[in-house]
Amino acid sequence: MIAIVDYGLGNIRAFGNIYKRLGIPYCFAKTKEELAQASKIILPGVGSFDYAMELLNNSGLREQLDELVLEKKVPVIGICVGMQIMAKGSEEGKSKGLGWLDTTVVKFSDDNELEFPLPHMGWNNLSLQKDDPLFDDLDINPLFYFLHSYHFDADYEHVIASAKYSERIGCIVKKENIYGIQCHPEKSHHNGVNLLKNFAEVANA
């Protein structure tokens, strides 16, 4: 069962619609009982880092998420801000992140803001740096949709795919059972659908 965490952020219906079309069981997890069904977890997110952490900390699901991800090693994928809050913190705010990944989120340099306006919004190619089951049946240098001003450093040791805007950024990370993706697979047509399908099929760590 794919549990899509419903803590008040992210277009959870878009993920549900994709899994419904694929015939893959899913639920919107708003309670501990619903989250307990999870064999895979999607942690969506849009907006600011601090607001996302406030909502998640107030959802009543934080402790159970830590247990499922860190102790039981249930595969999880964080999307956009859902990826960013997996880090220790962000230059965007003052809140502590989940700390699942030993890094911090940084802002794009504004040195080239005329040529590369913020937020980074629109389509961009990914450079897939490592083989991973998440990438099965994706195009070569696949196009994905982005909307963000903060990102993971491309030199972070767990980056498995990157992209170039005004600078090279870490777009997809993987550490054991933990995936994070900065772009939006739910808005990225066939490449996004294939990525979400692949996530549903990855083996437990």
Automatic annotation (TrEMBL):
Keywords of this entry: Amino-acid biosynthesis, Cytoplasm, Glutamine amidotransferase, Histidine biosynthesis, Hydrolase, Lyase
Signal peptide segment: none
GO CC, any one term: cytoplasm
Glutamine amidotransferase domain mapped to chain residues: 35-200
Bilayer-crossing regions: none
Main subcellular location of this protein, as a coarse class: cytoplasm
Active-site residues per Swiss-Prot or TrEMBL entry: 80 (nucleophile), 184, 186
Entry EC no(s): 4.3.2.10, 3.5.1.2
Subcellular location: Cytoplasm
Pathway linked to the protein: Amino-acid biosynthesis; L-histidine biosynthesis; L-histidine from 5-phospho-alpha-D-ribose 1-diphosphate: step 5/9
GO terms, molecular function: glutaminase activity; imidazoleglycerol-phosphate synthase activity; lyase activity
InterPro entries associated with the record: Class_I_gatase-like, GATASE, Imidazole-glycPsynth_HisH
Superkingdom classification of source: Bacteria
A GO BP annotation: L-histidine biosynthetic process
Catalysis: reaction(s): L-glutamine + H2O = L-glutamate + NH4(+); 5-[(5-phospho-1-deoxy-D-ribulos-1-ylimino)methylamino]-1-(5-phospho-beta-D-ribosyl)imidazole-4-carboxamide + L-glutamine = D-erythro-1-(imidazol-4-yl)glycerol 3-phosphate + 5-amino-1-(5-phospho-beta-D-ribosyl)imidazole-4-carboxamide + L-glutamate + H(+)
Function: IGPS catalyzes the conversion of PRFAR and glutamine to IGP, AICAR and glutamate. The HisH subunit catalyzes the hydrolysis of glutamine to glutamate and ammonia as part of the synthesis of IGP and AICAR. The resulting ammonia molecule is channeled to the active site of HisF.
Subunit note: Heterodimer of HisH and HisF.
Protein's UniProt name: Imidazole glycerol phosphate synthase subunit HisH
Organism of this sequence: Parashewanella curva
Gene name tied to this protein: hisH
